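Help needed: design a sequence for this.
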C-alpha cells in the first residue's frame, strides 16, 4: 500500500463512520479490518463498505442505530475472520442441540477455542433442578462433549 492509498482509505472509512455511531473500540476494529478484507478480496475499501449485506443493515427500518452498528460490526467480523466465524457458528449450533436447559446452563469455551477446556455455568433454584440438569449433562455422548469442548476446524 502506498501513502495515497492510506489517505483515501481513511477518508472512505471516516465517511462511513458519519453514517452511524460506532463505539471507539468498534471504530478501531472496523478501521483495521476493512482494508484487510479489501486486500484479501482484491477489492477496495469502498466496495467492502458498499456490499449488499452492509447496505441492507444500514437501510433497515426495523433496527435502531446501536443494533445497526452491532450488526455491521458482526458482518465485517465474519468477512475478516471467515474460518473462525464458521467455527463459532458450528459450535453454537452444537451447544444449542446439546444444552439440556438453555435458560439455566451456559457453556463458555476457551477464548478462540485455543485450549481444550470448557466452562459450564449452571444456575439452579433447588437440589432437584441441579440433579436433573447434571443427569442430563452426564447422559451426553462423548463425541458431543468432544465437539463442544474442543471443536475442530
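Sure. Designed sequence:
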Amino acid at each position: 500500500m502506498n501513502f495515497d492509498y492510506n489517505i483515501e482509505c481513511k477518508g472512505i472509512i471516516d465517511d462511513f463512520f458519519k453514517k452511524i455511531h460506532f463505539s471507539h473500540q468498534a471504530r478501531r476494529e472496523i478501521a483495521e479490518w476493512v482494508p484487510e478484507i479489501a486486500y484479501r478480496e482484491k477489492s477496495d475499501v469502498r466496495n467492502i463498505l458498499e456490499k449488499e449485506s452492509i447496505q441492507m443493515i444500514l437501510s433497515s427500518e426495523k433496527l435502531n442505530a446501536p443494533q445497526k452498528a452491532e450488526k455491521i460490526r458482526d458482518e465485517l467480523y465474519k468477512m475478516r475472520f471467515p474460518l473462525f466465524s464458521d467455527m463459532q457458528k458450528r459450535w453454537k449450533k452444537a451447544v444449542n442441540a446439546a444444552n439440556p436447559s438453555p435458560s439455566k446452563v451456559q457453556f463458555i469455551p476457551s477464548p478462540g477455542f485455543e485450549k481444550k477446556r470448557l466452562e459450564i455455568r449452571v444456575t439452579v433454584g433447588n437440589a432437584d433442578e441441579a440433579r436433573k440438569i447434571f443427569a442430563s449433562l452426564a447422559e451426553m455422548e462423548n463425541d458431543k462433549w468432544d465437539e463442544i469442548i474442543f471443536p475442530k476446524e
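The chain has two domains: 3-80, 83-149.
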